[in-house]
Amino acid sequence: MRTKLLSSLLVLGLAGCTVGPDYVKPALPAAGAFHETGDLMAPAKAAPPALDTWWTGFGDAQLVRIVERVLAQNLDLAASAARVEQARAAARHAQAERLPQGSLDGSAARVRQSELSPLGRVASALPGYERNHTLEEAGAGASWELDLAGGLRRESEAADAEYQAAEASHAGVRVSLAAEAADAYFRVRGAQARIAIAEDQIRNEQGLLDLVRLRQQHGLGTARETAQAEALLLQAQATVPPLKIELETQLNRLDVLMGAAPGTYAEEIRPGHAPFAIPSIDTAEGPASLLRRRPDVIAAERHLAASNARIGAAVAQYYPSFSLSALLGVSSIAPGKLFTGSAVQSSGALGLHWRLFDFGRVDAEVSGAKGANAEAMAVYRGSMLRATEDVEDAIVNLVQLEARHGVLDSEVDAHVRARDAAKDAYTGGAVSLIEVLDEDRQLLEARDSLARIHADEARAAVSVFRALGGGWNGAAAGEPALNVAASPRAGRAK
Fold first, then answer.
1. Which three-class secondary structure state does DSSP give residue 355?
2. Strand 344-353 to 101-112 pairing
3. What is the average per-residue pLDDT within 384-391?
4. Are 435 and 426 spatial neighbours (Cβ–Cβ below 8 Å)?
5. DSSP sequence for 59-121
6. In this structure, which of 125, 130, 212, 392 has its CB flanked by the most CB atoms within 10 Å?
7. Helices assigned H by DSSP within 316-432
8. Cα–Cα distance for residue pair 44/406, rounded to 1 Å
9. Rounded CA gap, 96 and 3, in Å?
């Protein structure tokens, strides 16, 4: 009868049921296309790059080198990778909990018995009593918890899902760092361009001031005109320090992103670099692509799967759990007799644990698990909505910046012609200096705005790539998580 009982428990342990709901990935509604796509695929732009390596689409080798260095050296990314390793270890540990466990122990102790202890008083009166002896022991033990209700299996499913969520979060760190590096780089390039414009304007204003002073020396100008020209020169010079602050701040930011002390790579990013292009961006797949490309959405879905599995783990506490354990060893205080038949000792046990009178707490644990699952569902749905919002906002920002860029191009051209005409007219005495100074001021503002808008365009394009989940191989890293979600290993609840 004992043999039949043990055999039945073994079969149940191997093919037992799994309580709790099986996970089914929820279907989230998604529009067929982004409604703010605008002119992202204009023929004049460079061809859209692959989302995995979107930074190559700007045609800037320096940007590519910086992003690759950030992805190889950034310390936040290294810390994120370490968190993935911790989650992987936790998943392996949860899987190992379902397997039999074994141990091997041995010890040797030299003991001198007290004659005044209760045992010593009795034993010392016996013939042949020996106070000193050596106790030697060796043994192997094994135990196995029979997962009849599937609670351990559900815990393993939850740990697997959390590991996949950690991988997705790691991909999200990679996406963010690539975008941060590109954003800092384009801010550097923008500051460099604006400094060059300001310095060019300073040279022009200095030339105008020299002309005014020459006219004053010949009695054709006034002290007021000279003061006005000096004021405009100083105004142009005053624009440089804030731009240099921006430049140095962003260079320091890039160095830290590359895992280096500020000032390490600053000399590599010099002004006068070849111009960059704003690539077109392919959004043909629409919002549905965010479900497999956005790391935060994938991580939220994996957290949802983990919370679902924990419901089953909580429900399993309603059922009894059985365990098998065995011990085989030898123990001896006789020298040289440890591995003889008379030193052998063994034991076997069948354990039962059932929270029979604790169902109130189990009810609370199940309710808590269901509440956590409802929260995870809301977070998952919200992450999809926020992801779509991020893309729409980034697209409209880029489209409108492009439109403004075109207007500013025409404005700068008009101000150049107006300033040249005013300067010629002033030289000939047809207009006053105030008209020339006003045209200079407007030209400086327009050129500065154009340089800033061009850098902002690139940063807006980076934001679109980031919002789309670009910067990692979504097909390679995200798809396994989706496969696990669609085909859980657990059976139907019983």
1. coil
2. unpaired
3. 93
4. yes
5. --HHHHHHHHHHHHH-HHHHHHHHHHHHHHHHHHHHHHTTS-EEEEEEEEEEEE--SSSHHHH
6. 212
7. 359-427
8. 13
9. 27
At residue 386, the pLDDT reads 94
Which residue type sits at 104?
L
Model pLDDT, residue 443: 86
pLDDT tens digits, residue range 352-366? 888 888 888 999 999
81-86-92 Cα angle (round to 5): 125
Given a contact cutoff of 8 angstroms between Cβ atoms, the answer to whether 51 and 293 are in contact is yes
Q: What are phi and psi of 354, to 5 degrees?
A: -145, 125
> Over the stretch 199-209, which tens digit does the pLDDT of each residue have?
988 988 888 78
Residue 330, both tokens: 């030898």
Count of positions (residues) in the chain: 494
CA distance 467 to 178: 12
Token look-up 């419901």 returns 311
Decide: residue 1, CB within 10 A, 0-12 exposed, 13-18 middle, 19+ buried: exposed
The three-state secondary structure class of 467 is: helix
Half-sphere CA count of 309, side-chain side, radius 13 A = 26
Helix (H, G, I), strand (E, B) or coil at 169: helix
pLDDT digits (tens, 9 = 90+) for 157-192: 999 999 999 999 999 999 999 999 999 999 999 999
Q: How far apart are CA 324 and CA 413, in angstroms?
A: 87
How far apart CA 259 and CA 240 sit, in angstroms, is 29
Q: Specify the pLDDT at position 46.
A: 64
Neighbouring residues of 280: CB distance < 8 A, sequence distance ≥ 6:
40, 41, 42, 45, 46, 47, 48
Q: How many CB atoms lie within 10 A of CB 48?
A: 17
| pLDDT digits 0-9 by tens, 218-275 | 777 788 888 888 888 898 899 899 999 999 999 999 999 999 999 899 888 888 777 8
Number of helices and strands in the chain (H, E): 13, 4
- According to DSSP, residue 280 is labeled -
To which residue do tokens 């797949």 refer? 285
If one counts every other C-beta atom within 10 angstroms of the C-beta of residue 88, the result is 17
CA atoms of 337 and 202, how far apart (whole Å): 100
Residues 6 or more apart in contact with residue 357 via CB below 8 angstroms: none
* Nearest of 45, 70, 43, 74 to residue 58 by alpha carbon: 45
pTM of the model: 0.82
Cβ distance 88 to 273 under 8 Å? no
**What Cα–Cα distance (Å) separates residue 323 from each residue in 5, 142, 146, 248, 353?**
13, 11, 6, 65, 8
Tokens of 109: 């102790």
Contact 239, 197 (CB under 8 A): no
Distance CA 333, CA 110 (A): 10
